[in-house]
Amino acid sequence: MPTEPITRRVAFIFPIYNEEENIDLLHKTVDEVTAPLAGKYDFSFLYVDDGSRDGSLAKLTELSARDERVTVVELSRNFGHQMAVTAGLDLVDADAVVIMDSDMQDPPRVALELIEKWEEGYDVVYAQRRSRQDSAFKKLTAGGFYWFLRKMAAVDIPKNTGDFRLIDRKVVDELRKYRERDRFLRGLVSYIGFKQTAVLFDRDKRHAGVTGYPLRKMLRFAADGILGFSVTPLRMITRFGYLISFLSFLGILYVGGVKLFAPEAAVPGWAFLGIAMFFLGGIQIIMLGVLGSYIGRTYSQVQNRPLYGVASVRTGPAVPAEAREGAEAGRGPR
Fold first, then answer.
1. So what's the pLDDT on residue 305?
2. Does pLDDT of 98 surpass 90?
3. What pTM was estimated for this model as a whole?
4. Which of 223, 231, 282, 331 is the one with CA 20 to 30 A from 43?
5. First-to-last CA distance in the chain?
6. 208 contact partners, CB below 8 Å, separation of at least 6
């Protein structure tokens, strides 16, 4: 007798932080987009509430009561976007996982294209922005960040990409082994390797609410990406030291030449010396700051604290008991 084809499981992970106004539309849109493929795939939806201060958790609780495919993970406080996604990856059990933001800037319809590429044999399919409806400042800083990151990072991290991507189960299993605290998931996925490809898309405007990444958090996130995948800043300290030494040597030659060949042109240089001292002092402080950033990351890592804490898990059929126990321990399956 012919055997029935095995239904492959695809799970969506949505990190949630103060997205009360977006949740209903998000779930409705994703449900409509995936409905034509419901016979071929077993879809599930995992929402991770990252310590929201609005009514997001109540909305999610209501949603899980209506739809048995929905699992809601409530973190004990706000741990940040990357930790919320990590909690979802630790808890999910599926053949493929689609990570998507909840502000509707990532069009749910693009998930179907990610699944198509996955069926072609790719292990990671990342959505790459062809265009984005953001402010000029946002576009400028994002472009500068990706240019700088590609120049400095030890791995090739595709530009104009976020966490919107599909990753195969074996890639999820590998990601669970990486437990560093200052997480830059798109860099980790690139570092792990496997067969990867891109799907181009046009990013939409945020539907409602405000971004969870103001400038301060964006700068910190950029630092995580650079410091986590490059030691170039440390090498630059040495190179800059050589440059300062070379310029100082030229200054010595200049002063000696003036004293020998044009003593009448020599002018007391107290102001110049004062400025030079402050300049070198500032450079030294910056260098100490770079060293301190690496030392601070090492200190946080050796503390070996759990990455996040879970207050509750409203389970659905896609979450096995052993995975739930691992997530509630705040570390996930190892």
1. 75
2. yes
3. 0.67
4. 331
5. 40
6. 21, 22, 103
